[in-house]
Amino acid sequence: MYMLQLKGLLTAPVLHTHYAMDVLHVFPQEAYYTNMYANEVGRFLQDTLFIAEDLQPLLAGRG
Hints:
By secondary structure, the chain is mostly helical. It has four helices and no strands. It has a domain at 17-45.
């Protein structure tokens, strides 16, 4: 499931540029869009691949 979401996230700027321009009123070639997109991809990877620091003691049985 996460792989499909990641695939959709990574292909969105390439396949759906008209959506970004027409609905969101941002342009993929702008630095703002690129920075926000990179942050979103990073946040997705962080949320799906890594365990939050505050949960680590609970999972280790020390909570």
